[in-house]
Amino acid sequence: MKKILNTLLAILFSVTVSAQGNNYVQNYTKFEGLALTPPMGWNSWNKFGCNVDEKMIREIADAMVSSGMKDAGYTYVNIDDCWHGDRDSLGFIHPDPQRFPSGMKALADYVHSKGLKLGIYSDAGSQTCGGRPGSRGYEFQDAQTYASWGIDYLKYDWCNTEGLKAEGAYKTMAAALRKAGRPIVLSICEWGDDKPWEWGKTVGHLWRTTGDIYNCFDCVEDHGTWKSWGVMQILDKQEGLREFAGPGHWNDPDMLEVGNGMPVHQERAHFSMWAMLAAPLIAGNDLRSMSAQTKDVLTNREVIAIDQDELGIQGFKSSSLDSVETWYKPLKNGDWAICFLNRSKSPKPLQLKWADHSVEDSFAKRELNTKKDTYRIRNLWTKKDMGTTKGILKASIPGQDVLMLRLIKR
User: How many CB atoms lie within 10 A of CB 133?
Assistant: First the structure.
């Protein structure tokens, strides 16, 4: 009898320990089924930096609807750094009471009432880049807080992360979001230093591939210990990364600078190349006061359709000749996007005999063969048809501008 009792106690102890152990097993993977096309929205940082408050965020949400951006596909209204107040005695974070007196739950409810989603910002380190409380050591509390507020998107930065390893830090936040139970898009903002494209697919929905963008088409801003990059510099840094992107996991070359001061031809080129990269389209301008030209760029649905194509294949540069780069992106239904980017300041002529043209994309296992197949040609910026690939393409591409086409299989 004693032997049987000891056996039963041993089994009970084993089951108890096993059950207790299971309570501590974490799921370090992101929520599936989110960001199946590159996220589209707005972020406060590029234009406003730390000058954020609830009044402005509400007005941005209103403008996203009234400007036609919501109808064009923009969904997320993302508050970047400096919304934070203090942590309470239990460690829970609260918004700055002067800037967000109504609280984040009320703000999320307002944004949701517009048919939009609210994003927020934190940092894997002890402090954010703007010196506010970071999430290090508070990951699970912060995730629970964000879920209770109704947050839909988290941009998670990488300042003040002494001693941390990026993959582990982002897995911790992914596990925390999982535990909190609300599906939240996780944007890995680690600047590409630890090659997040190699490990980020199961952890986050998008990952920054470079340092911060700079409101300049072709230049570098040197801060001494780090640099900000112009549009062309960031574009060059995307080479070799396309194989890592796809539905639910995107290379992120940073937010858009459209509407922040570049001339419209540079804005058009910037927006076009981000679409060719299947990049997240996160606007960074003041939506309340944007010009008609800027609005036309940001809401060009035919260009947006290239970015949002459900195949989720990132485009690639095929050639570069006399400052003109030729980029291709395979699309659903056998269509292709072609973008001719003129990086010089002077206009460049273009002549292409389609019958002599053939491109094979070994990664996507797609072939563009205009020798055997005929395509209808659509100019995505003039929004006009340009005949078919039975003829010859002749054009002049203005300086620092693009000719962007969709080849529609007949």
Answer: 19
Of these residues, 123, 157, 286, 335, which one is catalytic? 157
Q: Which amino acid is at 152?
A: D
Contact status, residue 380 vs residue 405, Cβ threshold 8 Å? yes
Report the C-alpha gap between 13 and 182 in whole angstroms. 34
User: For the segment 32-65, what is each residue's pLDDT rounded down to a tens digit?
Assistant: 999 999 999 999 999 999 999 999 999 999 999 9
DSSP 147-193: HHHT--EEEEE-SS-TT--HHHHHHHHHHHHHHH-S--EEEE-STTT
How many Å apart are CA 140 and CA 142, to the nearest integer?
5
Place of tokens 């997040």: 196
Q: Is 142 a catalytic residue?
A: no
Q: Is 74 helix (H, G, I), strand (E, B) or coil?
A: coil
pLDDT, residue 261, reads: 96
Closest of 139, 52, 150, 43 to residue 93, by C-alpha? 139
Domains of the chain: 40-307 (3.20.20.70), 316-409 (2.60.40.1180)
Question: Quick one: tokens of 238?
Answer: 């995307």
DSSP H stretches of helix in 183-263: 231-236
222 is annotated as an active-site residue: no
Ordered DSSP codes for 356-392: G-EEEETTTTEEEETTT--EEEEETTTTEEEEETTSE
Tens of pLDDT, residues 138-190:
999 999 999 999 999 999 999 999 999 999 999 999 999 999 999 999 999 99
Q: How far is CA 112 from the centre of its chain?
A: 20
Query: Could you tell me if 137 and 148 are in contact, meaning their C-beta atoms sit under 8 angstroms apart?
Result: no
Q: Are 268 and 233 in contact (CB under 8 A)?
A: no
Residues paired with 191 in a beta bridge? none
Query: What SS3 state is found at 53?
Result: coil
- Give the whole-angstrom CA distance, residue 208 versus residue 13: 47
By the 8 A CB rule, do 304 and 297 touch?
no
Nearest to 255 by CA among 276, 270, 240: 270
Q: Work out the average pLDDT over 251-264.
A: 98
Query: Whose structure tokens read 């993977």?
Result: 29
Beta pairing, strands 401-409 & 336-342: antiparallel
| Annotated active-site residue in 212, 286, 307, 335 | 212
